[in-house]
Write a structure and sequence with these properties.
Two copies of one chain form a homodimer.
Chain A: E1 8-11, H1 15-26, E2 31-34, H2 38-46, E3 51-52, E4 61-64, H3 71-81, E5 85-88, H4 94-100, E6 111-114, E7 135-139, H5 146-158, E8 162-165, H6 168-191, H7 206-212, H8 219-228, H9 230-253, H10 256-272, E9 284-292, H11 297-307, E10 314-318, E11 325-333, H12 337-346, E12 350-352
Parallel strand pairs in A: 1-2, 1-4, 2-3, 4-5, 7-8
Antiparallel strand pairs in A: 6-7, 9-11, 9-12, 10-11
Pathway (chains A, B): Amino-acid biosynthesis; L-tyrosine biosynthesis; (4-hydroxyphenyl)pyruvate from prephenate (NAD(+) route): step 1/1
Protein name (chains A, B): Prephenate dehydrogenase
Catalytic activity (chains A, B): prephenate + NAD(+) = 3-(4-hydroxyphenyl)pyruvate + CO2 + NADH
Chain lengths: 353, 353
């Protein structure tokens, strides 16, 4: 059994590389750094991410965190100059694998991809907490040594992430859906703002800021990423174009049904994204409470429900003018209902179980 | 001169109506509520947003906060049954104006639109703070009484928002750019997720969540909004489709330049959005600091710069191995440079002014 004891060499002290180095340092593992840019290397060292690699260093694991176009060459170099396990953290997995698949030592290579980043770049934007609770794709190939796979999975967990194992091809299909196509649509949403008079953009709210945030990312980097995954991205974009055509026709003809279909699919799509903590969206249930029919009681109920820490998703009030109490239905996540009931009962509310 | 003293009648106790009612109540203004749904009305009252409107009430201002398809009829009703100033807070302004433009009393009508919302809906999602610091479009028509315009502007400021005056047509062009087209692209980004195997969505990171967040909004409501502004939205969508075609051709041919153009326009678009506090993006400047060339000093500098509360946007290190100190360039917002210099000097750093 392998165990990650270090040292770990991180090649590329940008946002992701420096964040990995900081996370490993936090975990007590020695980190060796290298970067073509002296600024990046010194900044990362200065931030406490590790020390510059030196002659004679023998890393247990090399993490290649360089832009997509450089991945193949840098992974190859790491396999040749060390006997370490080698992973890369590039956003596309089939292409770098193809570049090294025939090399001696390729059994020591296991691709990976932490699903965390930022529209900012460079070591100054790095954070030891960047990967906490995030998925980290682990993409072994047919000849990957199982011990090497285990070591890269341990890298992910020591950085605070949750490893998710996928084939390189499945990974690339997945990120076309979850990252590359959303990024391109964000770029289109942001780009069309340039056609508006400057003072019209004063009406920008939080919505457009959220939709376009990722489009602020380094265009050189994203050009490389999307191009490296062109085949998967193209398949999806052609489908998106068809649906966009449908919206255009629907608006032109006043066909509300066809527009609603796209909007409803959008709602379903947001619900298909797993919950922040990796689980699926939770089912809801109802909690029933009797509420005296005089002013202030409903406000008191909402305040007490709020104090319980349970998020109220919806409410219905069954009010019969002939009675002195109403029955209030609070809709909450199913696994929070018991806590809400107990909490309300402790504050003297009459609940209906 | 008019002054907003109340009472204000809010018609429609959904997310926006209840939030306005809560904000006005917070400001000490009496609020009268009405809604077709008893649940909504009781929930809003229970939250402390106001009391249900009663016969004999004479509001100073009526705020119509109902779905777009109902706006014309409800504004007309408010003009006919009261002598109050009437505004609506609908997301599109030309169409409701057209519905009431010929009515007697139309000089008392001034459209408006707070640029704040949520992918959630209903009174339970409401907040008195929803409009704090947000723009609120005020869209007088040719016959609007100036006192009525001033009263609606005061509504916006009393709710914590910043009034932005625009013609109804300019407003509708502006929100096509800043709201409706981004929403539709978010819906397309979310909808294409439905084509992915469920476990592939485990790779969803913060990016796709942000891009798609608004697409979770009520499809019935957004169908009405986008349809009400079909002409403006169509013009922009046809341009977006052309650019999407360009991306597809670029990916198909491996034409990196054409892809980069769309990505670069996206970056420029995100920069065109005014800063959160309404101002334009700030210019940057450099602060120079001498740093002794031994371990730990750079980390100490970053820690001290961080303690100053000034965000370091970039760093360059001018390191001459023959000297015992290096010169570090910290790039910061221009109007924060003086504070950073003073702060570093107070911690004994040698700066270069």
């Amino acid at each position: 059994m392998s165990e990650l004891t270090g040292p770990v060499e991180v090649v590329g002290a940008g946002l992701v590389g420096t964040s990995i180095a900081l996370a490993l340092t936090r975990a007590g593992i020695e980190v060796l750094l290298s970067d073509r840019s002296d600024d990046h290397l010194r900044t990362a060292s200065g931030l406490g991410a590790g020390r510059p690699v030196a002659a004679g260093d023998r890393p247990q694991l090399v993490v290649v965190a360089v832009p997509p176009d450089a991945l193949g060459a840098v992974i190859r170099d790491a396999l040749e100059r060390t006997d370490a396990v080698v992973t890369d953290v590039g956003s596309v997995k089939s292409r770098p694998l193809a570049a090294v698949a025939e090399l001696p030592g390729v059994e020591r290579y296991v691709g990976s991809h932490p699903m965390a980043g930022s529209e900012r770049s460079g070591p100054l934007a790095a954070s030891a907490a960047l990967f906490d609770g995030r998925p980290w794709a682990i993409t072994p190939h047919g000849s990957s040594d199982p011990d090497a796979v285990a070591l890269v999975e341990e890298l992910a967990t020591r950085c605070g992430a949750t490893p998710v194992r996928l084939s390189p091809a499945d990974h690339d299909r997945a990120v076309a859906h979850t990252s590359h196509v959303p990024h391109l649509l964000a770029s289109l949403a942001a780009g069309q703002l340039l056609g508006a008079p400057r003072d019209h953009l004063d009406l920008s709210g939080q919505g457009v800021r959220d939709v376009t945030r990722v489009a602020a990312g380094d265009p050189g980097l994203y050009g490389q990423i999307v191009s490296s995954n062109a085949e998967q991205v193209l398949t999806l974009l052609i489908d998106v174009r068809e649906r966009l055509d449908g919206v255009i026709v629907a608006l032109d003809r006043g066909d509300r049904d066809r527009l609603d279909e796209v909007l409803r699919d959008g709602v379903a799509g947001t619900r298909a994204i797993p919950g922040k903590h990796g689980g699926p969206a939770r089912p809801s249930t109802s909690v029933w409470v009797s509420v005296p029919d005089h002013p202030g009681e409903l406000a008191r109920l909402f305040a007490d429900a709020g104090a319980s820490g349970v998020n109220i998703e919806d409410v219905h009030i069954d009010h019969d003018p002939g009675r002195e109490t109403g029955l209030v239905e609070l809709v909450v996540e199913a696994d929070r209902a018991e806590h809400l009931l107990t909490s309300l009962e402790s504050r003297s509310w009459v609940t209906h179980r």
